[in-house]
Fold each of these.
Amino acid sequence: MKAWKVRDVMTTNVATVAEGTPYREVVDLMTSRHVSGVPVVDDAGLVLGVISEADLLYKVEMIGEPHERRIFEGRRRHAARVKADALIARELMAAPAVTASASTSLVEAAKRMEREHVKRLPVTDSHGRLLGIVSRADLLKVHLRPDEDIRRDVLDGGLKRVLASEEATIDVTVADGVVTLSGRLVRHSAVQIAANLASQVSGVVQVVDGLTYEFDDLNPAYLKPGLGNPAGLL
């Protein structure tokens, strides 16, 4: 069962800037490349930080406002004023950058973006050098997979183990990423395992579990002494 990683969806032709790139050049680059953020890298390709549209907009937001430091100034206001006064990439960027490796799962990448409140992650190697970039939109590419590819992964992945131990057949259909399982297995636990494995296949939107079972091995009363062992589990 192939679980997609960041390497499967990341962009490798990445627009970057150096620390000393002027504000106007950063704006020009992001506009011409139609991107909402760029990594800042050094001569060796090491990622130093990231500049987003939000970092650039402070200069627009604070046009006409006095930039002198106030006696009582909140952290957010101070950060906004510093960005509004910035002239080069080093002063604009958020650092250190929140990054991911090429082997990071899409699930973890999505969680990291949510946790760190970022819309993109530079993808780096073990030395911190830039390999690519992955955005929220890139993560959604997994749901563009053809239904037949998803069905094949469901069948050829973990379900093979379930079928081998259960001596049963599971019918799998996929429509618009929704996987429907039908058939009959020996154990209730095997039904749960099958549905869980199917849900882990990249591109699955939902699993409709239509499987039935012969013995409820998840019922504590089922394996109590004196009730027999009809499934041969002990």
Amino acid sequence: MREIGIGVIGGGYMGKAHSVAMAAVGAVFNTELRPRLEMICAQTATSAERYRRAYGFRRATADWRELVADPKVEAVVIASPQETHRAIAEAAFALRKPVLCEKPLGATVDDSHAMVAAAEASGAVNMVGFNYIRTPASQFARALLQAGEIGEITWFRGEHTEDFDANGSRPATWRNFGAANGTMGDLAPHMINAALALVGPIARLSADIVTVHGKRPGTEGRAVNDDIGQFMCRFANGAMGHLSFSRVSQGRKMGYAYEITGTKGAIRFDQEDQNALWVYKADDPPALRGFRKILTGPEHPDYLPFCQGPGHGTGYQDQIIIEAKDFLQAIAEGKSRWPTFRDGMEVNRIIAAAWASAASGAWVDL
């Protein structure tokens, strides 16, 4: 085992999640590389110092350039706003430092293209933070699909729906302005990534995107971003699909859910019950033919390091710890792991196609 100095840029919601994950991952997974919380960066020196004390970093800074350039920072985690991702990643790759970047990869498709080019030119390990697809249940679903357990996939329905912005009388916040902060920039990337992971490339789509609460307090004279988006699609393998996204879906707290139909069965999953997968097999005896609830346990991917008891479950933070494990293993092996920056760029490309389709009212080929 050897230490690796970790620098985290951003100390808020995701900055804390990544910091906690890096502090725990060595003990949970007995990783070859053991993270050393070397430096954290925030917008002000005061907040950076507060995060340093809270999370256990050795040093703090208000300048991400200082963090990236520091020789004791050997790998960089980007957990700052999307508009900052490109410049930080390019600087880190210029020094051939591995980068784990939160989703979405870039604020624009052009940013994502530039980040992929910098990553691949440097040869450094790169990964995008799509955590939800890493639950043991969803990893097991991918394994079942790849093994052909439900046959040829014919249909995919996925959603990422929440209600944190459902109250139209709530005053506007930063989330209500800028394309990168709307539903298509915030929630859609996760389910699009899931669709790509579970079914494969999307060939064409037809989208519709709307703003529901355009006149909440504090929006006067300012353009408000999107609340709901959806698209029909055809996957490259011929499967049909429908994906929907909403931050105004009353009653939904973590509605990251999908159902997949194949020629021999079907799979259902809902993140609000993240430790269960529902599987239907068409060749079961007629009297037993129905969806079977499978509780995750030690036999499922990345579960046992957390708990020896089946059905005891894993949580949100554990997803980030699994992500940290994958990132460290990629660095140890010197080879990037899925989802790479190129995979993240594909998500951005699909979102751009959805916006183009919504504007034109026509199908868009990818």
